[in-house]
Specification:
By secondary structure, this protein is α/β, with parallel strands linked by helices. It has 12 helices and 12 strands. A 6-stranded parallel sheet has the order 3-2-1-4-5-6, with helices on both faces. Strands 9-8-7-10-11-12 form a 6-stranded parallel sheet. The longest helix has 22 residues.
Length: about 300
């Protein structure tokens, strides 16, 4: 087992939560550097800002990529960088001995890493992280509704599509805020859990019947469950908040046709709670390093 002070970690790209992830890892005693944040002014603690990917990778035992690590499959997600970081170029600079961590990994990344003799770990599969991230996403959705809607949340009729980790967190938080929450889910056990938790419940076969009563719809399903048929029943003025990862769960063209306002709220933890979200990722990285016997 290696002493924590002998391991250098390199955080490459991402939104503000990755900058705070680097800061959190540095605070725990890791030598930590980061790059891809040319115009981000947030406090990075003891983490060292590098001017290039090569400088960041030099001597690093582990490389930490953002969540999601890419939006197009070709480039690292770097909203604060003035220059692009291509995935193939990054992989070509890595050594087989370096560990690679990334969020929401695609099969193409595993294939490229395997060809290069690299080991990739998807830290978003850490159960503790996903639960905490779901809560952060729900809080971001609540903040968004407070900002976008001209009414209070008390008595607001909220229809939540999907009842996985994020769906449950959204339903629970909105109910606590005084909303009248109905959950639409596919599986019988999810509907039973929703009912036992005090929510209204319906399956997707009844979605067109219940959606006209909603003041706001929050989708968490990463499939196109809000199609043209469903959108034709959405009341005028009722927004659809889509929390699902790209391409989302709403037919955008049909929404435009019917005049339905869709708010595709991606990566809310990185926007509304980057300090906490970055700390959660740092926790997951530390756990993964411990499981591998690295520290």
């Amino acid at each position: 087992m290696t002493d924590i002070k002998d391991i250098k970690l390199a955080v490459i790209g991402g939104d503000l939560r990755m900058l705070y992830c680097a800061s959190s890892l540095s605070a725990r005693g890791f030598e930590t550097c980061f790059c891809g944040f040319d115009h981000a002014s947030a406090d990075c603690g003891g983490a060292v800002r590098c001017g290039s990917v090569a400088d960041a990778l030099a001597g690093a035992g582990a490389v930490i990529l953002p969540v999601p690590y890419t939006a197009d499959g070709c480039r690292i997600n770097c909203p604060f960088s003035r220059s692009e970081i291509r995935i193939d170029g990054l992989i070509s600079q890595l050594r087989p001995s370096q560990l690679v961590f990334a969020g929401v990994c695609r099969p193409s990344l595993y294939d490229a890493a395997e060809a290069a003799g690299l080991t990739v770990t998807d830290y978003m599969k850490d159960e503790v992280l996903t639960v905490k991230n779901a809560r952060a996403t729900a809080e971001g959705a609540l903040e968004l509704c407070l900002r976008e809607l001209p009414v209070t949340l008390l008595g607001l009729r909220v229809l939540v599509l999907g009842f996985g980790r994020v769906g449950f967190a959204v339903a629970e938080l909105f109910k606590a805020a005084g909303c009248d929450v109905t959950v639409c889910a596919r599986r019988a056990e999810q509907l039973a859990r929703a009912q036992c938790s005090g929510f209204g419940a319906c399956d997707f076969k009844r979605l067109c019947r219940v959606i006209p009563d909603a003041d706001v719809v929050v989708n968490t399903v990463p499939d196109t469950v809000v199609d043209a048929n469903v959108l034709s029943f959405v009341p005028k003025g009722t927004p659809v908040v889509d929390l699902a990862s790209m391409p989302g769960g709403v037919d955008g063209d049909a929404a435009a046709h019917f005049g339905v306002r869709v708010i595709h709220a991606l990566s809310l933890p990185g926007k509304t709670a980057p300090v906490s979200a970055g700390g959660y990722i740092a926790d997951a990285i530390c756990s993964a390093l411990e499981m591998r016997g690295v520290v």
